[in-house]
Design goal:
The chain is an all-beta fold and 370 residues long. It has a single domain, classed as Kelch-type beta propeller (Neuraminidase, 6 Propeller), CATH 2.120.10.80. The protein is 2% helix and 38% strand. It contains 2 helices and 33 strands. The strands form 9 sheets. The protein has a 5-stranded mixed beta sheet with strand order 30-1-33-32-31, with no helix packed on it. Strands 2-3-4-5 form a 4-stranded antiparallel beta sheet, with no helix packed on it. Strand 20 and strand 21 form a beta hairpin.
């Protein structure tokens, strides 16, 4: 997605659009409270929970036309952010993946001058430093990254240099520190979502290719098999959508939420389920708020409920037992689009930055407690 699209702001009236769907009338599930702000206003950044429970916040778009090189650590015990050494390169719209050894793999994104980059680095919590590792075979931003059962990391799709939309995929091997090609996907995708299924396959769903009048949105889905290194079509959603989110439920189904249409001003309150046993999609309950640009902001809680923290001024919780959504009360409104979230343990969730409500990137942060 272009920097211009990143900083595009919606009016508050549009962000507050709600729908009296399933869950209306129920008490809010949990509460959100403000916590100390980050040192830098960010959106399209990442938040990764480390083994010791602290959260690494890295990069992002700062709103002055630049990507950030800064990073910071959130300590849930004190509720404060602390400084870190800078990353190797500036970046936003990148990915960050926790490796089995506890290090954080930070891949691609938009770098200096908002050019798509192939740079990759590792954050080591023991030394609190960033170092280079390998390099992508294809520079990309807005891709998906999923840790596989074999310890490798799948990188798929995104935008390449010159606004090329990619179907290519790569695997990062933490033993060698190198990338090698795999796949490719069956479609060129950006603004898509991906989630690991219980059987080890990766579901990739939705997204788009091309821009402006040439844009094509997808209802299609596909799965990646790490054993064969191939992607296979996996049916179609009920709705074409991009800038949505997907999260694995306890029962093995995948909940897909929100997104938007080609105009990017028609955000969705609709949801659907993917059932891997049948390979089919079914409509889900309506959310309380329409939301988009919230990929990665849905967290499976210890209770089996799902917190959907991004894409709108207020978070909501999905209860699979009732099949209904409930708004979360507390401090707010949230910033909404392109925020980053991370689990804090015991059901807590850190929500950071983003943009929306007539403002650019913000440094604000919140903590959800069930």
């Amino acid at each position: 997605m272009s920097p211009a699209m990143l900083v595009r702001l919606l009016p508050l009236s549009a962000l507050l659009l709600s729908h009296e769907g399933s869950g209306a009338g129920h008490a809010a599930a949990g509460r959100i409270a403000s916590t100390e702000a980050m040192s830098v206003a960010r959106m399209a950044h990442t938040a990764s929970v480390l083994r010791d429970g602290r959260v690494l916040v890295a990069g992002g778009f700062t709103g002055d036309g630049n990507a950030a090189r800064s990073a910071e650590l959130f300590d849930p015990a004190s509720g404060t952010f602390g400084p870190l050494a800078r990353m190797v390169v500036v970046r936003h719209s990148h990915s960050a993946t926790i490796l089995p050894n506890g290090k954080v793999l930070i891949v691609g994104g938009y770098g200096a001058g908002n050019e798509v980059i192939a740079d990759v680095e590792l954050f080591d919590p023991a030394t609190r430093t960033f170092t280079r590792t390998g390099s992508l075979g294809s520079a990309r931003a807005g891709h998906v990254a999923v840790l596989l059962g074999n310890g490798r990391v799948l990188i798929a799709g995104g935008v390449g240099p010159g606004w090329t939309f990619l179907s290519s995929a790569e695997l990062y091997d933490p033993v060698t520190g190198r990338f090698r090609p795999t796949g490719p996907m069956t479609e060129r995708r950006e603004s898509h979502a991906a989630v690991m299924l219980r059987d080890g396959r990766v579901l990739v769903v939705g997204g788009h290719r091309d821009r402006r009048s040439e844009i094509t949105l997808y209802a299609s889905a596909e799965t990646y098999d790490a054993a064969t290194g191939t992607f296979t079509r996996a049916g179609d959603m009920r709705v074409r959508r991009h800038k949505h989110d997907a999260v694995l439920l306890r029962d093995g189904r995948v909940l897909i939420t929100g997104g938007s249409d080609e105009r990017d001003d028609g955000e969705y309150d609709s949801t659907e389920f993917f059932d891997p046993t049948t390979g089919s999609f079914a409509p889900g309950p309506t959310m309380r708020l329409a939301r988009y640009k919230h990929t990665g902001s849905s967290i499976l809680l210890p209770s089996g409920d799902v917190l959907i923290a991004g894409g709108a001024p207020q978070a909501e919780v999905f209860d699979p037992r009732r099949g209904a959504f409930t708004l979360v009360e507390g401090d707010g409104p949230l910033t909404g689009q392109f925020s980053a979230v991370a689990s804090l343990g015991a059901g807590g969730v850190l929500i950071t930055g983003g943009y929306g409500r007539g403002s650019g990137p913000r440094a604000a942060a919140w903590v959800y407690r069930p």
